[in-house]
Amino acid sequence: MGIVRIGQTEITYDLRRSSTASERRITVTPGHVEVVALTSDDEAEIDAFLTRKRQWLFNALRELETTTAKRAVVLRFMTGSKIPYRGRMARLTVHRHGGPHIEISYRNGFLVDLPSWVGEEDQDAVVSSEIKLWLKRRVRRDVLEIASSYGRRFGLKPRSIRVADMKTGWGACGPAGSILINWTLVFAPKAVLEYVVVHELAHLSVRSHGPDFWMYMAKLMPDFARSKGWLDQNQGSMNADLFTSTRPIIDAT
């Protein structure tokens, strides 16, 4: 690991020598700077390259810091990262294996078995995409189980139930009885997801949000107020952008 000093700022970087690279380059991603040098480069040539690129490197880090500060994201999809799931931040562990398929499991944290054919430069994008798909499948399963349970107990039978990306809102109940649930509720505690599903099921009987509706909600789910309060307080932190990784900034000689 090396250090570049720009004024009072010290920037650490990892140095990688490449026999296939045709030019030196610097790649900046959240929390990580990599310098790729030619195998023929000596320390003086690397130092000279970094000296020429000091201002660019400083500006790139400032740009990345500004971008990530504007939205909550999972910065890197690597061992030790934290993934939002059911109201908590779950630890991510990435293992490499020789099999052909990507496998994901959850037990007090996410474990991703990543095939060796996935390149290091593609790991963030691949792991992000696979975990997002896993989460969507899990929340869909949870929604159907909740709807089935309340349907049996209270005779609430929607025409259809679908889990999808929603630009606004957490759920909807159409005039024909079709229910739509926002998949990003997987980031909330399961009781909050249950509240939203029950809320939309309740609209099958009471279409408005007047006193009759909330009385009916209390009949269906007596403790709904706690989950409603959690959602009101935390809704700003739950969105699909959590899984929109920041693109690396790359500069070369």
From TrEMBL:
<protein>
    <recommendedName>
        <fullName>YgjP-like metallopeptidase domain-containing protein</fullName>
    </recommendedName>
</protein>
<dbReference type="InterPro" id="IPR002725">
    <property type="entry name" value="YgjP-like_metallopeptidase"/>
</dbReference>
<dbReference type="InterPro" id="IPR053136">
    <property type="entry name" value="UTP_pyrophosphatase-like"/>
</dbReference>
<feature type="domain" description="YgjP-like metallopeptidase">
    <location>
        <begin position="25"/>
        <end position="234"/>
    </location>
</feature>
<dbReference type="Pfam" id="PF01863">
    <property type="entry name" value="YgjP-like"/>
</dbReference>
